[in-house]
């Protein structure tokens, strides 16, 4: 789920510091003690800084795809979900029309709705705050918030990650977009590999289950097979069909063997959360 | 102008979908089928995008070039659990090196 293979990036991993270690130092009545808050700030800063700096790669990629500095910065300010931004810029660079390009970016961003769903129960934001907090609901903030011990630490982790990442991502996007011209041909620096490397780094932690791996393999085959046949931007939408196809195949196999589909979907909380 | 249209559509769509998650009552998006799709859809899209941007070459074309070496190096970095930024740096540096060597 997390782009950053750190302990903070794994919602299923506990906080690095066992909170019990600091219990003697604080009143027993304190629901969230200093240790949990420190862990939240440290996780938030770590993930925020590491991922925030990669905005530079986005700025360069956007500029070399033919976007203006203003357009690159508008994407980071207003879209603020990295994978969708890289996808949109890649589709536009490949000559895709604005609708298919935006559709690919949108479907990729749809996963944030599910992070929001899990965060809503955890952060319990006031109604007035929601429209502002929503902009920061992304892979990284969700991963850090879900990894914290207790709602107050989760809220702190969400805020620290969101603020650090938002500021750095936008500053480095600007630097990358402005600096791209000085670099000359970005391909000579290997910067055209930054976009796909970001996707791969986001993908890797999701590939723990067999179903996820089957989906990824099928999606690669569908996408590459579609490239010579369909206009730019469409192959990625075709590849999205891998998800329902793998679910259908898994369902059919489960029916044949007469057992339930199980919970091999790799999600930590399963369906019991209903 | 078409670029601004794409930016506008993406910004509005991506924001609304984030807000939807925070605002919708749990349960609506928590159906088992929807949940499983939500887990697999980003997997499919990210895998496809990785492949397309590694092997894509111009409209309708595919190519095996230095980017593939860079991505292979990034995959190794991910296997040894390198931090996010290092993974990207490895991909960029290896791609540049292979290209400089005429690969």
From TrEMBL, chain A:
PANTHER family, per the entry: INNER MEMBRANE PROTEIN YGAZ
Name of this protein: Branched-chain amino acid ABC transporter permease
Segments for region (Disordered): 1-30
Cellular compartments per GO CC: plasma membrane
Pfam families to which the protein is assigned, alphabetical: AzlC
Entry keywords, A to Z: Cell membrane, Membrane, Transmembrane, Transmembrane helix, Transport
Domain of life per record: Bacteria
Membrane topology: Multi-pass membrane protein
Annotated compartments: Cell membrane
Transmembrane spans: 45-67, 156-181, 187-207, 214-230
UniProt xrefs under InterPro entries: Brnchd-chn_aa_trnsp_permease (IPR011606)
Subcellular location, principal: membrane
An example Gene Ontology biological process: L-valine transmembrane transport
Family: Belongs to the AzlC family.
TrEMBL record, chain B:
Chain ranges passing through the membrane: 6-25, 37-56, 68-98
Pfam families in the cross-refs: AzlD (PF05437)
Keywords carried by this UniProt record: Membrane, Transmembrane, Transmembrane helix
The protein's name: AzlD domain-containing protein
Species per Swiss-Prot/TrEMBL record: Streptomyces lonarensis
């Amino acid at each position: 789920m997390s782009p950053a293979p750190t302990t903070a990036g794994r919602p299923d991993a506990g906080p690095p510091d066992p909170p019990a270690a600091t219990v003697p130092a604080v009143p027993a009545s304190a629901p969230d003690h200093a240790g949990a808050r420190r862990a939240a700030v440290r996780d938030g800063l770590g993930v925020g800084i590491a991922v925030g700096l990669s905005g530079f790669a986005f700025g360069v990629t956007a500029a070399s795809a033919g976007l203006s500095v203003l357009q690159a910065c508008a994407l980071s300010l207003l879209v603020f979900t990295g994978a969708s931004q890289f996808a949109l810029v890649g589709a536009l660079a490949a000559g895709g029309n604005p609708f298919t390009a935006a559709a690919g970016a949108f479907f990729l961003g749809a996963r944030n709705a599910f992070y929001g769903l899990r965060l809503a129960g955890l952060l319990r934001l006031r109604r007035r705050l929601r429209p502002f907090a929503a902009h920061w609901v992304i892979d990284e903030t969700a991963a850090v918030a879900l990894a914290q011990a207790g709602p107050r630490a989760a809220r702190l982790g969400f805020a620290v990650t969101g603020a650090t990442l938002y500021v750095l991502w936008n500053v480095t996007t600007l630097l990358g977009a402005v600096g791209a011209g000085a670099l000359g041909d970005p391909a000579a620096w290997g910067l055209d590999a930054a976009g796909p490397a970001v996707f791969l780094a986001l993908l890797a932690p999701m590939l723990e289950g067999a179903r996820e791996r089957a989906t990824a393999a099928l999606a690669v085959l569908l996408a590459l097979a579609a490239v010579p046949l369909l206009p730019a931007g469409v192959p990625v939408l075709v590849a999205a069909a891998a998800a329902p196809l793998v679910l259908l195949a898994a369902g059919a196999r489960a029916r044949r063997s007469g057992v339930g589909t199980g919970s091999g979907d790799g999600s930590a909380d399963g369906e019991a959360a209903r | 102008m078409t670029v601004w249209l794409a930016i506008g559509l993406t910004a509005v769509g991506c924001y609304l979908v984030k807000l939807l998650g925070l605002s919708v009552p749990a349960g609506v998006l928590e159906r088992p089928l929807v949940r499983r799709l939500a887990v697999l859809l980003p997997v499919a899209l990210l895998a496809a995008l990785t492949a397309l941007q590694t092997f894509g070459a111009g409209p309708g074309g595919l190519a095996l070039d230095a980017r593939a070496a860079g991505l292979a190096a990034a995959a190794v970095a991910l296997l040894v659990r390198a931090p996010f930024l290092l993974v990207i740096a490895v991909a960029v540096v290896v791609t540049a090196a292979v290209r400089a060597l005429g690969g």
